[in-house]
């Protein structure tokens, strides 16, 4: 029976298969874990070659293997939601570094920079007043 195809993001929600045509399965991710452990995550070209030998007909590039590892498969990744303290730090570092997410992520071990960016913008979305709220709010009167 064919292995069921799935993908997941950092926070565990389901997303579409990447446009590259390469689909990741639980089996391919398990093999990626095994091969990375053999090579200590050092030689992504060799890792992709070994993965492609195991799965004929698939063509995983070294970049795809590295990105899948760093965004989804690495067991050291912290996939839990940010704590309140981490969220506050995120806003402080954004004030310092602006949109330089790679620099910001250096202050958050085991967090992927794209996860931090997504969290930052979702916090803005849910905490910012809507334009309708701004137009109906009362401005302080000058006395």
Could you explain how this protein is built, in words?
This protein has 143 residues and is mainly α. Helix content is 54%, strand content 0%. The chain has seven helices and no strands. Helix 1 (26-39) crosses helix 2 and helix 2 packs across helix 3 (62-73). Residues 1-20 have low confidence and may be disordered.
Low-confidence parts lasting 5 or more residues at pLDDT below 50? Answer: 1-20
Strand percentage: under 5%
Biggest β-sheet description: none
**Average of per-residue pLDDT values:** 80
| CA-based shape | elongated
Order of helices and strands: HHHHHHH
Cα-to-Cα separation, first versus last residue: 77 Å
As a whole number of angstroms, the C-alpha radius of gyration is: 20 Å
Helix content: 40-55%
Sheet/helix structural class: mainly alpha
Number of strands: 0
Number of helices: 7
Key traits:
143 residues, 0% strand
Secondary structure layout plus pairing:
Blueprint: H1 26-39, H2 44-54, H3 62-73, H4 84-97, H5 101-105, H6 113-127, H7 131-136
Helix pairs in contact: 1-2, 2-3
């Amino acid at each position: 029976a064919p292995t069921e195809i799935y993908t997941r993001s950092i926070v565990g929600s389901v997303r579409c298969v990447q446009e590259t045509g390469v689909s990741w399965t639980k089996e391919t991710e398990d093999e990626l874990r095994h091969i990375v452990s053999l090579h200590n995550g050092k030689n992504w070209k060799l890792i992709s070659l070994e993965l492609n030998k195991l799965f004929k007909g698939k063509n995983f590039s070294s970049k795809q293997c590295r990105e899948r590892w760093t965004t989804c498969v690495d067991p050291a990744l912290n996939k839990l939601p940010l704590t309140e303290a981490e969220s506050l730090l995120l806003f402080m570092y954004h004030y310092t570094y602006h949109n330089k997410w790679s620099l910001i992520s250096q202050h958050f071990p085991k967090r992927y920079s794209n996860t931090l960016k997504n969290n930052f913008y979702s916090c803005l979305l849910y905490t910012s007043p809507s334009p309708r709220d701004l137009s109906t709010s009362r401005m302080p009167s000058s006395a």
